[in-house]
Amino acid sequence: MHRIEQYQQTHKYVQCMQEKQKLDQIRRKSFENFIRDYEVKVRTIDLKDIEMPDVEKATINELYITIYMACDIIESGVLDINDALHRVDKNLEIVQFDELKELANEVKKKLNYLQRTENYMNMNTWGDKCDNMYQMMRNKAKAIIKKKLEEDKKPK
Questions:
Q1: In Å, what is the CA distance from 19 to each residue of 7, 15, 30, 143, 152?
Q2: Cβ-based neighbours of 107, under 8 Å, separated by 6 or more
Q3: What beta strand segments (E) does the chain contain?
Q4: Distance, CA of 75 to CA of 154 (rounded, Å)
Q5: pLDDT tens digits, one per residue of 52-88
Q6: Is the pLDDT of residue 51 over 70?
Q7: Assessment of whether the complete model's pTM goes beyond 0.85
Q8: If DSSP codes are grouped into helix, strand and coil, which group holds residue 77?
Q9: Residue 73's CB: how many other CB atoms inside 10 A?
């Protein structure tokens, strides 16, 4: 605010407007962060507080953990792609996976949240189960690629 007043007093209106725009951007970003954090808090519920049959609670909890496991697997895939690329050339990037890089950042946030709020990730089985699922998915991908190669070799 002090700079804005200085610019006004010295009749530097362009700089004054630029400073006001910067201030507005900071306020807008702060407000957006506040709203996003508030929405997360509002949407966060404890299944114990909701009246529903135990079977439904168990299903929701199972799906909840399934989604977090999928996040872990996505993060592993993105990291492995980057590792493979960097072994070839440190500067090499594949543009088609930029969205996955952004997704990986969101995944990390979700996994950090899960680690802070629940104890599932602290269990030894978490890493083993996610690693097993990731390897199984990679094996399925290899099988699909192999099947496609075999079909491509068949005479038409």
A1: 9, 6, 16, 58, 62
A2: 71, 72, 74, 75
A3: none
A4: 36
A5: 888 988 888 788 788 878 877 887 887 888 889 899 9
A6: yes
A7: no
A8: helix
A9: 19
Average of per-residue pLDDT values in the chain: 80
Radius of gyration in angstroms for the set of CA atoms belonging to the chain, rounded to a whole number: 25
CA atoms within 13 A on the CB side of 93: 8
Residues 47 and 56 sit within 8 Å (Cβ to Cβ): no
**Token pair of 144, please?**
């699909």
Q: Is 25 left (phi over 0), alpha (psi -120 to 50) or beta?
A: alpha
Residue 92, classified by CB atoms within 10 Å of its CB into exposed (0-12), middle (13-18) or buried (19+), is exposed
Q: Are 94 and 81 in contact (CB under 8 A)?
A: yes
C-alpha 128/C-alpha 85 separation (Å) is: 25
Q: How many CB atoms lie within 10 A of CB 130?
A: 19
Name the phi and psi angles at 50, rounded to 5.
-105, 135
How high is the pLDDT of residue 150? Answer: 93
Cα(8)–Cα(51) distance, rounded to whole angstroms? 60
pLDDT at 136 over 90: yes
Nearest to 101 by CA among 118, 119, 85: 85
